[in-house]
Design a protein that fits this description.
The complex is a heterodimer of chains A (152) and B (501). Chain A is mostly helical and 152 residues long. Helix content of chain A is 68%, strand content 0%. The chains are: A mainly alpha (152), B mainly alpha (501). The interface between A and B is large, with 71 and 65 residues.
Chain lengths: 152, 501
């Protein structure tokens, strides 16, 4: 629990810091006529306050050397990495190379998240899903998506 | 009869072949995605939101509502057949439902769940229709101060009813508010936290955010638990329950509906509280409580009805006051805004065809679940047998295309990526995404109303206690906070979530 509390506190503090650093050009305003900088600063101070509370709770737990009772499944790094890369790949590829080609790449990379299939099955899955996606989204729903590569 | 004419208008709208089709597609797609193990209704709606873009507003909301019921029913199917519920309230369903399935009564369990849901849906639809007018009239009296008080109540309710620590929930709320600040300030048109990025000038779009926080993050979580769920191999036979089964579940369905209808209105309570309370009620008044957890049909019928009734009445605060009471209604509010409808009490009077059409389609959607979904059970079971490793890439691709299609902008896919990884991280740290999403959606409205209230009151905070409605709402908020600090309720809250794990 201690590690979790301290991590959440760190996330909260990071958000508060960003809010404060980039609010210098936002006028605070008055109580009657609040400026665009009022709520951001209020949220930032709220975050700092809660972060302090969480940090305190975490440190106290650390001192008691309280061990987390529940053993959690480890982070699925393989899945996180391949799914993260596949989403980013789609973001960078969709406009230059179009829906069909980027769908093939996205599905193939995302399929690497789990074991169990050979390369041939993965390629088949990628091709099949790309075809379905093209049919459903571009033709079926009529979304204005680039289907084929635009730069050739 | 005013109510009768309202319902007539509603059924007029809901029964056009177009809207019937939207409702049917919604119910089928909702079941299709909702049946996947580990995927709850909020995730289902987030994933399927993009397909409703091109529809007219009424059709889009009808389809989304259909997706919601479909997802709920799909979740129950999975809970009964695989014991892998997608949302917390499905755990209660699984307690006796899965035991029934193990005893070879899966068909009966599925049928009773659908019948109970339809009955609950019918009652709660009438309840919504009857109460909506009064509530929206009350809502029309709201000024900025009352709106602020109501939003604070909604946020606190979601924090209190969520699982896990309140401090974590508070961090999620504040981060949601912070993300909601990004974009151009409405009053001064100054850019806030856009970091010079052109795409951020209109703020973060809520669809890629929701898809990332719920869709991608939830998939990453399910990857952690290896192995596909053990699907019942046996063929499901005997869908039609026997007379004894119906007789045994009649009263539980009635009681569950009552419990669910009332608990569903409470902001933030969601469906878990309703199905848990209904289950405990049945167990307490049963003459044979030892049968519960071993396939008692009452233990399935009551929570399933309560679950559905609460799902339905949770729409009351959203439709009449524009106030989301959980992740699902927050997503619906976001969808309404995309279609240019500003949620609030004025929707009932200004867009009666939308309001009553959606209410009536709720009933139709529930009827479709029983008539169409149940016979298709073989299809849903075959979906459960598709290996997860093939489904994951499909869902990821769907999310990517959906996020891109919102504005035809690759930037939204980057938001999806960031929200997904962030959602996975916070969920590993024991935080829930619901308060974040709710605060993100309410945040801009909250700030606008707060600034207006201050302007009206000449900067005097006392306005919030001088106005009676606002005072009452703030008192209710305070009461809610105090109640959660009472030890006996704290242990009960822990009990709910222990059973609901």
């Amino acid at each position: 629990m201690a590690v979790r509390d301290l991590s959440v506190a760190a996330i909260a503090a990071a958000f508060a810091l960003i809010l404060l650093i980039f609010s210098t050009h936002l006028p605070l305003g008055t109580a009657l006529r609040m400026g665009p900088g009022f709520v951001p600063r209020a949220v930032a101070f709220g975050l700092i306050f809660v972060a302090a509370g969480l940090a305190l709770r975490g440190l106290l737990a650390l001192r008691r050397r309280a061990r987390a009772a529940a053993v959690e499944a480890p982070v699925h790094w393989r899945g996180t990495a391949s799914i993260g890369v596949s989403v980013l790949a789609f973001a960078t590829l969709i406009q230059p190379i179009g829906l069909l080609a980027s769908a093939v790449i996205t599905v193939f990379v995302a399929s690497l998240a789990q074991e169990g299939d050979g390369a041939r099955q993965r390629v088949l899955l990628a091709g099949g899903l790309a075809a379905v996606a093209g049919a459903v989204f571009a033709y079926g729903l009529g979304l204005p998506l680039p289907i084929l590569p635009t730069v050739l | 009869m005013e109510l009768a004419s309202h319902l007539a208008l509603g059924f007029d709208v809901a029964l056009t072949w177009q809207n019937l089709a939207f409702c049917l597609i919604g119910v089928l797609l909702g079941t299709l995605v909702g049946v996947l193990p580990g995927i709850g209704p909020a995730t289902t709606i987030a994933i399927l939101l993009p397909i409703t873009f091109e529809l007219p507003a009424v059709g889009a909301l009808i389809m989304l509502a259909g997706i919601y019921y479909g997802a709920q029913y799909g979740g129950s199917t999975t809970a009964i057949l695989v014991n892998m519920p997608g949302e917390s309230s499905g755990i209660i369903t699984a307690l006796d439902g899965h035991q029934m399935a193990k005893q070879g009564r899966a068909g009966v369990a599925l049928a009773i769940a659908a019948i109970g849901s339809l009955f609950a849906g019918t009652v709660s639809t009438f309840f919504i229709a009857a109460s909506a007018g009064t509530l929206s009239e009350l809502g029309l009296m709201f000024g900025p101060a009352e709106n602020v008080a109501l939003m604070v109540l909604a946020i606190v309710a979601v924090m209190v009813m969520g699982k896990g620590s309140m401090l974590n929930a508070l961090v999620m709320v504040l981060i949601g508010l912070a993300l909601g600040l990004i974009g151009t300030d409405v009053e001064t048109s100054k850019a806030r936290y856009t970091f010079g990025i052109q795409e951020l000038r209109d703020g973060i779009d809520f669809i890629p955010l929701a898809m990332g926080l719920f869709g991608i993050a939830e998939i990453l979580r399910t990857l952690e638990t290896p192995g596909d769920g053990e699907v019942l191999r046996a063929r499901i036979t005997g869908l039609w329950p026997k007379w004894e089964d119906l007789k045994a579940s009649a009263l539980p369905i009635l009681r569950g509906t009552g419990v669910g209808t009332l608990l569903g209105i409470l902001p933030g309570s969601g469906t878990l509280l309703a199905s848990f309370s209904a289950y405990m009620l049945e167990k307490r008044i049963s003459r044979t409580p030892e049968r519960f957890g071993k396939g008692a049909i009452e233990g399935l019928a009551a929570p399933e009805s309560a679950n559905n009734a609460a799902a339905q009445t949770s729409f009351v605060p959203m439709l009449t006051l524009g106030m989301p009471s959980g992740a699902v209604t927050a997503l619906m509010i976001g969808a309404m805004t995309i279609h240019g409808i500003s949620p609030g009490p004025q929707v009932v009077t200004q867009r009666p065809e939308l309001f009553w059409g959606v209410v009536c389609s709720m009933w139709i959607g529930n009827a479709m679940l029983l008539i169409i979904n149940l016979p298709l059970i073989a299809i849903w079971v075959s979906i459960l047998r598709i290996p997860y490793r093939r489904l994951v890439p499909a869902i990821i691709l769907f999310c990517c295309i959906g996020a891109y299609a919102v504005n035809n902008s690759p930037f939204d896919v980057v938001v999806l990526f960031a929200a997904g990884l962030f959602g996975y991280a916070i969920s590993r740290l024991g935080c829930e995404p619901t308060p974040l999403l709710l605060a993100f959606i309410i945040g801009p409205m909250l700030e606008e109303n707060f600034r207006r209230a201050m302007l009206v009151a000449h900067g005097d905070l006392a306005i919030f206690v001088h106005k009676p409605i606002s005072l009452a709402l703030l008192a209710a908020t305070l009461g809610l906070l105090l109640v959660t600090l009472v030890p006996s309720i704290q242990s009960r809250r822990a009990e709910v979530f222990k059973e609901g794990r």
